[in-house]
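Trying the structure run again after the queue cleared.
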Amino acid sequence: MLEGKALLDRARALSNRPEDEIARACGYVGPSGRVLKKSFYRALVAAKGYSMPNNGGGRTSASRSSGQGKGMQAEFRTRVHGNGNLLIGHAYTRRLGLEPGQEFRIEIHQETGSIWLLPLEE
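Done. Tokens:
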């Protein structure tokens, strides 16, 4: 991902293109191929010399441990797919230390609108 002057130069050179295409050309693409618009815009603002507070709302599926601030934070939106499935996402399964093959019982709490995953004993 480009930053600083390199980012500004590249974005300026592509300014006649759609925003998604500019962000993609500057390297702001997630592992799934999704354009990371918020990260791109934040990098542009930072490259212009403005500092923005990091409120932990970065939308990404990874977490960096560079020691400088919080880095990228997991914030994941999902929707029910046409087949009725609901995807939780790698960011959260990794964050919880879940491994492939683990099994859970699902509890639905109507009063709070929450879904609980309870690990099954092996």
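The radius of gyration is 19 Å. Worth checking whether this holds up in the mutant runs.
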